[in-house]
Design goal:
Number of domains: 4
Strand order of the largest sheet: 7-6-8-9
Structural class: alpha/beta
Largest sheet: 4 strands, parallel
Number of strands: 9
Radius of gyration: 39 Å
Helix content: 40-55%
Number of helices: 24
């Protein structure tokens, strides 16, 4: 029988280095990276690197052999080779100054088409929606870029158009569920076809070119090239299912790159926001809107014995119906200092109307002097002219209303008020060994915030006294006897007299027995017994943390002994993760105590200052 050579099977034959892959595909490194990004192929980490590298100890980039064979049959490989030939011939024409041949070659420039790869990677519509998170986040980022070296203005304009189309699809379907403000940007989550899609819109800052080239825009633009085609397919499918015309028809003055929009970044952004405030055209206007087309008809599931899952589905459906009409009937005006894009998107998603100053930005639908405005969003300490018919709130009010599924009272969000903490809705409510702030506990249990406030007060209640059971029984007997004496019953008084006489007789008998040597010892023992039986105030028993910690250490050692040797690394890893979580929890609790203590001191100082002012007056 013929013996196989070393590394001819197993991991040695199933992995290939990047240099070997380049030789097999006959591509340059940049073309190979572009091909792998588009096809979704990434390096692999083998179980035994030395075997996979055929005895070599150096760390190399490895790919699976099946993935490289899969790339050999890709038509894009030939297009990339044509690009290489085109660049070589065009360079020769430029060197010879043969512009006629150069123009002829530019007209016949090879085009890279990625439509078939989108269909190949996402065979169903649900698969494409599941992978929308990174796609949307990257396209929203590139939609804010000006013209750069590797990011042409056409690419950022395409990203801007596709992202606005997607936001309009979310507005039309009213599928927004949660939102959150962070340091990085605005997080949004929508439910499309039963799948949760989360993306981020960055804060708007005018772009400033950096001296260092820390970000490889050429590599990121390859992802953008693929994601734009993918999002275009998704938008087309969403619009057709919602009876909307695609591409959406916006006013003619929007999305036209003029000299003003190309030179002024504020005008470029204001046109993008103005496009969100227009209604879309329908394919068939006679068809009525049915908000619950994609929802399950849960009313058909009613029965006598409903399961918990059906009850949860009903509660969730009722909550979503309420959320879709949360801002219905509200007219909101946004001041010039407030970031408009996330607020316009949120208010329009939930049925409200929004506008801004038409003298500064395009796309306004009503003026500030309109008496029907219900809320005005302000982010400054004072406003010149105020109307009594509307509420002046800060931008956080809109986000908190969406997360809590109700219109919150506006008194906590007035101009200049200290805002309540803005909690993230994306955390798991059933998490363990993690610090949970008291404000989040109050949302689940309203009594928790009352306990937190009572514990933070200056006046503390006295500790409860734990009385042992025999002493408790004696106290009950004395109380019962006092009640009997207050009642004044003669029989009880006689019984008490008899008991007193019996005690006197017993004392006399003991005095008569003093001559005996044993009588004094008996009396001493009786006195000690009486002292032990006496009722004393109880003391609070506190468990020492040191003993508890020792007990936990002993339990941990016993658990570690029971673990098998092959599972010890995994066990130690789990224990270390648990300890890190506990440490982080302890640090956050300590930080919160410091903040509460500082707030107490400030309140005390204000009270003292107010008293001094009153006394001086």
């Amino acid at each position: 029988m013929r013996r196989l050579k070393k590394y001819a099977s197993g991991e040695g034959a199933s992995y290939i280095t990047r240099r070997q892959a380049l030789r097999k595909l006959q591509l340059s490194l940049n073309d190979f990276r572009r091909l792998c990004i588009v096809k979704g192929i990434y390096p692999r980490e083998p179980k035994h690197r030395r075997r996979a590298q055929r005895g070599s100890t150096d760390i190399k980039i490895l790919y699976h052999t099946k993935d490289i064979k899969f790339l050999l049959s890709e038509p894009i490989v030939w297009t990339l080779r044509d690009y290489k030939i085109f660049n070589r011939k065009a360079g020769r024409d430029r060197a010879l100054k043969d512009f006629r041949a150069l123009n002829r070659r530019l007209k016949a420039k090879p085009e890279l088409k990625l439509d078939h790869i989108v269909k190949e990677r996402y065979p169903t519509f649900i698969d494409a929606i599941k992978d929308l998170d990174d796609c949307l986040t990257l396209l929203f980022l590139f939609s804010t870029f000006p013209s750069l070296k590797y990011v042409p203005r056409e690419q950022s304009a395409l990203c801007r158009r596709l992202t606005i189309e997607f936001l309009h699809a979310v507005i039309a379907s009213k599928s927004l569920r949660y939102c959150f403000i962070s340091i990085k940007g605005y997080y949004f989550q929508a439910e499309i076809k039963g799948q949760k899609v989360t993306w981020m819109i960055p804060h708007y800052y005018p772009f400033q070119p950096q001296s260092r080239s820390e970000v490889d825009f050429r590599l990121m633009s390859i992802f953008v090239e693929f994601y734009t085609i993918m999002l275009g397919f998704v938008n087309y499918r969403l619009y057709n299912q919602m009876n909307l015309v695609y591409p959406p028809q916006f006013p003619t003055n929007l999305f036209q790159d003029t000299e003003e929009s190309l030179s002024d970044e504020h005008a470029f952004v204001s046109e993008r926001i103005a496009a969100l405030n227009f209604d879309l055209l329908k394919i068939d206007p006679t068809v009525d809107e049915n908000e619950a087309d994609d929802d399950l008809n849960i009313d058909l599931l009613e029965g006598e014995n409903e399961s918990e899952q059906i009850k949860q589905m009903k509660e969730k459906a009722a909550e979503e119906r309420k959320l879709r009409k949360l801002f219905k009937g509200l007219k909101v005006f946004i001041n010039r200092e407030v970031p408009r894009e996330p607020l316009v998107f949120l208010i329009r998603c939930l049925g409200g109307k929004v506008s801004w100053d038409k003298t500064l930005f395009v796309g306004a639908t009503f003026d500030e002097s309109d008496e029907t405005i219900t809320h005005q969003i302000v982010d400054r300490l004072s406003v010149g002219k105020q109307y009594m018919s509307r509420d002046y709130v800060q931008p956080q009010w809109v986000f908190d209303c969406v997360n809590q599924r109700t219109l919150l009272p506006t008194n906590k969000y007035f101009i200049g008020a200290v805002l309540p903490p803005h909690l993230s809705p994306f955390v798991d409510p059933s998490r363990e060994d993690v610090y949970i702030p008291p404000e989040e506990k109050s949302l689940r249990d309203p009594s928790a915030i009352e306990k937190h406030q009572q514990s933070s007060d200056e006046e503390e209640d006295e500790p409860e006294v734990n009385i042992p059971e025999p002493e408790r029984d004696g106290l009950l007997e004395d109380a019962y006897r006092m009640e009997k004496e207050d009642a004044g019953s003669d029989e009880e008084i006689e019984s008490d007299g008899d008991n007193a006489a019996y005690k006197e007789d017993s004392d006399l008998d003991e005095d008569d027995q003093d001559f005996d040597g044993q009588s004094t010892e008996k009396r001493a023992k009786q006195k000690e017994a009486k002292q032990k039986m006496a009722v004393q105030s109880g003391k609070v028993h506190r468990e020492s943390q040191r003993s508890i910690k020792k007990q936990e250490i002993e339990e941990h050692r016993l658990k570690a002994r029971m673990v098998k040797p092959r599972h010890r690394k995994l066990f130690s890893k789990l224990i270390n993760e648990k300890q890190e979580k506990q440490k982080e929890n302890w640090l956050l609790e300590k930080k919160r105590k410091r903040i509460d203590a500082a707030a107490k001191e400030e309140k005390k100082k204000k009270k003292i200052e107010n008293r001094k002012k009153l006394v001086a007056q």
